[in-house]
Amino acid sequence: MISAKKIIPFFYLAMTFFIFSCGSNPYAKTNKMYKKQAKAYSKELQQLPTPENQKESALDYGDYWVGTTNFNLRKPNYVIIHHTAQDSVRQTLNTFTLPKTQVSSHYVISKNGEIYHMLNDYYRAWHGGVGKWGNNTDLNSSSLGIEIDNNGKEEFTEVQILSLIELLKEIKEKYNIPAENFIGHSDIAPARKVDPNANFPWEHLAQEGFGLWYDESEIEKLKLEAEFFKPNPLIIDLNSRLNTRIPFIDKLVFPEVIPAGFNVEKALRIIGYNTSDLQAAKAAFKLHFIQENLNQPFNSYDLKVLYHLHKKYL
Ligand SMILES: [Zn+2]
Question: For burial by CB atoms within 10 Å, which of 39, 121, 184, 243 has the most?
Answer without folding.
Answer: 184
